[in-house]
User: Fold these one by one.
Assistant:
Number 1:
Amino acid sequence: MSSLLLDIPSVLWPSIPQLMVGCVILIVLKKYYNSHIQPWVFAKFYPSLANYHVTCREIKRQHFASMKSHKSADPELRKKGALRILEIGPGPGYNFEFYPPKSELTAVEVNRFFEEQFFEKQADHPHIKMERFVVGFAEDMKDVPDNSVDIVVSTMVLCSVRSVEGALKEVHRVLAPGGKYYYWEHVLDPENIWARLGQHLASYTYYDLLFGCQLNRKSGEIVKANKAGYSHIEHQRFRTPPEKGFEFLSFFHSAHAKGIATK
Ligand SMILES: C[S@@+](CC[C@H](N)C(=O)[O-])C[C@H]1O[C@@H](n2cnc3c(N)ncnc32)[C@H](O)[C@@H]1O
């Protein structure tokens, strides 16, 4: 190491302090960008991808259909036919339309810039009673007590969380016995090598710059691997249809996994 330093041409020595200052500025900017600017950019940009939700609406409706026959673990709510639902990472709230009447919804969303869009959409779904919108991490839902919800939902969220295992541990903790976890996630393409290559290449830019998302996560496999504590998991791999106008992008995230895990 020391001989490597001595080999640096003498003409470069005066630039070393400037280079070091440059590196520090870049590191600080990147940290500031990731924690402050990226969430704002993402919340502004995400609704322009709403085409995905239009394309997937019917498949999603079928995925969530069994929710309406689920019975709450809370006797009072069961009598009323109501359900306590916790959605992690709801973003602008594209899943409101799939929740049964009398649902009582808590949201745990890390990006506070989604809050306004979320409540605007909620106004179109008066059959949902909003309990709380918590700005926080799915990996640490200390505001949500153990065994306190009947349903947990995540759609396209495990690709973004800091720790999939940490989030899954929390999902299991907050679910009441008999409760169900509905997940729907894009995953590393198990079949198409070109899509897989693109997912690996794009992951850095996707993750850090635009979507805060890792295209190459094996989220479905991780859910299956964490099945301990669940009595049953219905797990399915599938592909979403190409999105009109976004065929190129959808090629890279058409591989999906969805399922329902029952505690
Ligand atoms: C790709 S968006 C999906 C939004 C929405 N679920 C949907 O299906 O359109 C990912 C969402 O997860 C949120 N998110 C990312 N990491 C999170 C975390 N650790 N805890 C809670 N939410 C998180 C993001 O802020 C964003 O709203």
Number 2:
Amino acid sequence: MTDKAFATQNFCTLARCRLPVVQAPIGGVAGPSLASAVANAGGLGSMALTWRDAPGVRAALREVRATSTGAINANFVLDFPVDAQLDAALEEGVEVVSFFWGDARSHITRVKRAGACVIVVVGSVDEARRAVESEADVIVAQGAEAGGHVRGDTPLAELLPWVIMAADGRPVLAAGGIVSSEDAERVKQVGAAGVWVGTRFVASAEANAHPSYKAAVVAAGRDATILSELFDGGWPNAKMRTLVNSTVRVWEDAGRPQPGGRPGEGEIIGISGGRPLPRYDSDAPTSQTSGEVEAMALYAGTGAERIRDILGAGAIVSALAAPWT
Ligand SMILES: Cc1cc2nc3c(=O)[nH]c(=O)nc-3n(C[C@H](O)[C@H](O)[C@H](O)COP(=O)(O)O)c2cc1C
């Protein structure tokens, strides 16, 4: 078996899935239906659990379990307190835990003791080295093309080979701008064990994204996304990639002013699950959101320009897994 084939087999064994395709954590846009559809298709489904309380974590994971027999990736963003949610996820027996945006060291022993596989998402080679030192099982190299919050500045093609070298034999998944079999084939050739994909799953039938958000991803053309810190309500000082929408355009026309001096700051532009949503809030619009959906944080990677349709999650998994099947 080649080293590349071994890395893929190793990932699938560690993460307990059949195909090396991960539906990346995509906030509230991925609910239990998407995670279980991906798992049922042989991939690894993820649930972003940072912003739920412990009973909410348990309820969400039980809902995935009720409709799927596959493994679940419980995701935590370390810019926020996650201890109670992580404990709840481990008690529910998740097979995989992934960490983003911070130092995972203090959590990893606990996760491994519970028997789960640890994935750490990195945006630089230094971060990859730290993940290896802290004994992560799998590393995700997130290129600057990625949708949502973006950890580093380096494009995937440049970052991936260096992270694979730093990973010292651990499987590395490629993330950022991957939407098709051709994209997956390209990263496979470089040595990626599999793919970690967000935006392509935003435009899936099972995603909990607001229908207008899904339509905006499908309609995105060239240069449709921007990397900024604009949608900072609830998560300040963090870079994210979103579609260029009316909020972005008005802010750019005003000369990109700093927080406190931005057009329409504080204005309520919608409601999500009963919570009023101010302009520049970091929550993406879901099926529970109403109001000026077009003006909200429409997270999307550069690959959005090549997404032309809303597909079932199973079809997306099969297409992305094609190079490995
Ligand atoms: C709508 C959306 C929400 C996201 N939320 C999270 C999150 O909660 N936790 C996380 O680790 N990454 C999050 N990300 C980043 C993804 O996990 C992943 O790195 C990224 O989507 C990969 O790039 P792609 O969108 O081009 O496929 C989010 C991405 C999107 C598009």
